[in-house]
Fold this protein.
Amino acid sequence: MFAGILINKDETGYRATLEQIDPAQLPEGDVTVAVEWSTLNYKDGLAITGQGPVVRRFPMAPGIDFAGTVSESRHPGWRAGDKVILNGWGVGETHWGGLAQQARVRGEWLTPLPAALTARQAMAIGTAGYTAMLCVLALERHGLKPGGGEILVTGAGGGVGGVAIALLAKLGYTVVASTGRPEEAAYLKNLGASAIIERAELSAPGKPLGKERWAGVVDTVGSHTLANACATTRYQGAVAACGLAQGMDFPASVAPFILRGITLYGIDSVMAPPPARLEAWERLARDLDPAKLAAMTREIALGEAIATAAQLLQGKVRGRVVVDVNR
Ligand code: NDP
């Protein structure tokens, strides 16, 4: 038997509980992994609380990420003992996930753990950090360069936001952090933000165009914030949109696109193809300062994940959470 969180939905309601699970219940897959670390992302918060329709099958082991060691493999790419990470592919949504001591998945979903990272660091990064890197890569491919103007990061106090700030600052960009938690200014400056702006400056309905300010944007919140970020992006600048913490709507106009030639990049981590994942993880191993990652990370035990998931959706969790599934 192994410990894991299971989500059930039946006539008595929707609930997540820590349970002892029989390995015979593990889903189909050609690689079994002894999970060492997992994490909590926004989507895990939605899954565990039932506040968003993330879980598609019941019972479900949540957890869109895990890091651990292969214990059995029938896949030609993996052998017992290999260190692996998993992000997305519907794991924790339609296929049992990482908030458990064992996982069984398809070998093609796994990524090798970069040699420079421990399993715990990989989960401190998690899908949140890997998505932040995908955003940074999109801005780089657009042609943005350090010294070329300010980069706005929204939802800065959260996981994606924190990793985006640390990455961009280390690469030499000037980063402006938008947060609803101004009391976290010292934390955000320590990660590398040069300036802080109040979330409210961007989150209310705005004009089709505003004063040009941002060379680039990493937006984790969507809705009016994304619309206003586009409206204040400089001529031929770029916005990478990855999140919906404020809302899934996009109440914008075409003005920034047709009058300022800005580009909006959509960022998806879940189904990103393996080469994009490898590039992102290699860059994370190289460009993310381990001290900054440690400064934004809190560790919890598996049994604490259920309560912490609710706090995360309430915007009460700062930065990243790693889950020790064996504690
Ligand atoms: P977190 O909960 O860690 O961070 C979200 C942050 O958004 C909060 O900390 C808060 O920052 C801000 N926020 C919360 N509510 C609101 C609101 N109503 N209006 C404006 N800002 C708000 O989540 P993650 O960092 O893990 O994820 C961020 C977003 O990115 C989520 O929407 C998630 O679903 C999405 N995501 C998308 C991925 C993809 O593949 N496209 C992958 C990973 C995440 P502050 O307090 O500083 O204002």
